[in-house]
Design brief:
The chain has about 350 residues and is of the alpha+beta class. The protein is built from five helices and 19 strands. The strands form four sheets. Strands 12, 13, 14, 15, 16, 17, 18 and 19 form an eight-stranded antiparallel sheet that branches. It has a four-stranded antiparallel sheet with strand order 2-3-4-9, with no helix packed on it. The structure holds FE2/S2 (inorganic) cluster and fe (ii) ion.
């Protein structure tokens, strides 16, 4: 994921380092979003310092123009474009409120692999797009964090922390291209967030399911329903329950920094503007608690990367997700070597 849709609303150009590569994003005159290398082929000025002219991006130094394929199509003051003049272009598509980029072999780009986060467009769900967050940590630390909800009782004591959850075991499953962590918490008091959505303060059954797929697209699905009213994951899912999903896509800026893109969808109080604002603020405040931990953890790991980590039961989902990513990288390297 390269950006939120809203960041390109003004048409760009928007420059950003992704996977250590300079990328510039903009929209052509029809509104189609385009991503190119953010480095002019002439004297390497970032093209994001230039401007969009019609369907092209014009360099801000000597006016070279590049079309959506990255080909240089105009050089001021000379009729001939030097052969081979151009910059890299990346497969790029807007979907579910985000801009998705493919920076690998263009022949392998497959839009069908973009996660199906349909709730964003479904009127039965309310939707909040996230804040712009740049974190000084490796992106896999964020996936670890999302897959490990045992930290709630320590990091989030001021917000969503609730000690009830650690009494219930976590189940880890490796699906084909995903890792799923799930926990079903039965007959416990609802935490404040759920209290706001349920009709009374009775005990509830709660669930947490976190599914992650490479490179780091993670859906946290949580909710609650009346005690005993459903068999979570079975045919009688809680019809009376309330649900929310956090859609997460940490994207590496470098190996030491990450853009954390996210949004939330929920299916209760969907027309309540105050609630929408509260959801935005509460989740941001909660994540800021993680933010501090993740940056400190990354710095500490970097101090001596040869030091071993020890693993606990709660690390199983994070380890499975890392293994899945490692397998993908190994496969990609085999293809590259052929
Ligand atoms: S550096 Fe871009 S036109 Fe010269
Ligand atoms: Fe957290």
């Amino acid at each position: 994921m390269a950006a939120y849709d809203r960041e390109l609303e003004d048409g760009g150009p928007l420059g950003r380092t992704l996977l250590n590569e300079p990328v510039v994003m903009f929209k052509d005159s029809s509104g189609k979003a385009i991503a190119l290398e953010d480095r002019c082929c002439h004297r390497h000025l970032p093209l994001s310092l230039g401007q969009v002219v019609g369907d092209n991006l014009q360099c801000g130094y000597h006016g070279l123009e590049f079309d959506s394929s990255g080909t240089c199509v105009g050089v001021p003051g000379q009729s001939m474009v030097p052969p081979g003049a151009g910059v890299v272009s990346y497969p790029f598509v807007q979907r579910h409120g985000f801009c998705w980029i493919w920076m690998g072999d263009p022949a392998q780009a497959d839009h069908s692999l973009i996660p199906d986060w349909w709730w964003v467009e479904d009127p039965r769900w309310a939707y909040n797009t996230g804040a712009f967050l740049q974190i000084k940590c490796h992106y896999e630390l964020i996936t670890d964090n999302l897959l490990d909800l045992s930290h709630l009782g320590y990091v989030h004591t001021k917000t969503i922390g609730n000690s009830a959850i650690v009494d219930f075991p976590v189940r880890t499953e490796r699906l084909n291209e995903k890792v799923r962590m799930s926990r079903w918490i039965q007959d416990r008091p609802p935490p404040p967030l759920y209290r706001a959505g349920m009709k009374n303060e009775d005990n509830v059954d709660r669930w947490q399911i976190v599914e992650t797929e490479p490179p780091g697209h993670t859906v946290v699905y949580a909710g609650c329903g009346p005690v005993g009213a459903g068999d979570f994951g079975g045919p009688n899912e809680y019809a009376e329950g309330i649900r929310l999903r956090a859609l997460n896509a940490p994207t590496p800026e470098t190996e030491n920094s990450t853009f954390y893109f996210y949004s939330h969808v929920w299916d209760f109080r969907i027309d309540d503007a105050d609630w929408k604002k509260q959801m935005y603020d509460d989740f941001l405040m909660t994540f800021m608690e993680d933010f501090e931990i993740l940056e400190a953890q990354h710095a500490s790991i970097q101090r001596d990367v040869t030091r071993e980590l020890i693993d606990l039961n709660v690390d199983a989902p994070g380890i499975a997700a890392r293994n899945l990513v490692s397998e993908k990288i190994a496969t990609e390297n085999t293809i590259d070597a052929q």
